[in-house]
Amino acid sequence: MGVLSDILARKALELPALRQRRLPAPPPRRPVSLARSANADRLSLITEIKFRSPSAGKLSTALGVAERAAVYERSGASMLSVLCDSHFFDGEYEHLTQARAVTTVPLLCKEFVVDPAQLDAARAFGADAVLLIVRCLTAPQTRELVAGAKARDLVPFVEVTTVDELAVALDAGAELIGVNARDLDTLVMDAERAARVLAAIPEHVVRVHLSGLAKPSDVQRIVQSGADAALVGEALMRADDPAPLLGSLVAAARG
After folding, report:
1. H/E element, 254
2. What are the boundaries of each domain within the chain?
3. How far, in Å, CA of 25 to CA of 65, rounded?
4. How many CB atoms lie within 10 A of CB 151?
5. Roughly what angle, to the nearest 10 degrees, separates helices 243-253 and 65-74?
6. Hey, which of 97, 227, 236, 247 has its CA 20 to 30 A from 69?
7. CA gap 255, 82 in Å, rounded
8. Selecting from 3.40.640.10, 3.90.1150.10, 3.20.20.70, 3.30.830.10, what CATH number does the domain 3-14+35-253 have?
9. What is the pTM of this model?
10. Cβ–Cβ contacts within 10 Å for residue 58, how many?
11. Which H or E run contains 229?
């Protein structure tokens, strides 16, 4: 079994309790605007809050969720990705609420979503968008969850790794698609494959590069790719103070 199989098996165990959980009333949704045409042709940067991952192990905990979220926004992040998986990433849905309390930028609930109950939790705790990973789903499930997210006033952020998965995402009506340079089964990075898939995304869809960015030259490469946005995760989460690195990445994103 690969890492993704282990994660999905864990999700199946967690779902019964989540379906019974009492959820808070959802706050108003913030607008999600990552397209270059809406941001003066600047690459938007999505910064991630996660304290552990299967690929990197333990990451910095010098800053709590709220402190790190505030630093990210002050340093120029356009969106925050908040890990909500507890078993593999040391995340919680409550981390969305903590980040929202100190920021004004939109929040992405990053979870391994396989059930509408996870959409309900994402919206209730303050997410504006929710990650839907095609690799975790069948084509009918992808269509159902994209529609379910929209019905809950959540923006579906659909992740793919291959051209075949891209076709599933487009068929489901995805308008915001991220291409992961990391294979979720093997955790191997493949920037060339990601570039090919990004290039295949229609121009009317917002295109996001996911994973593998650590320095300004990496961001400059994505600026040239035509992507609208890019996610930076582990490089920032290794830093006790992410502001200097993020400042340099934001400067590179201006082209």
Report:
1. none
2. 3-14+35-253
3. 21
4. 10
5. 40
6. 227
7. 26
8. 3.20.20.70
9. 0.96
10. 11
11. strand 229-232
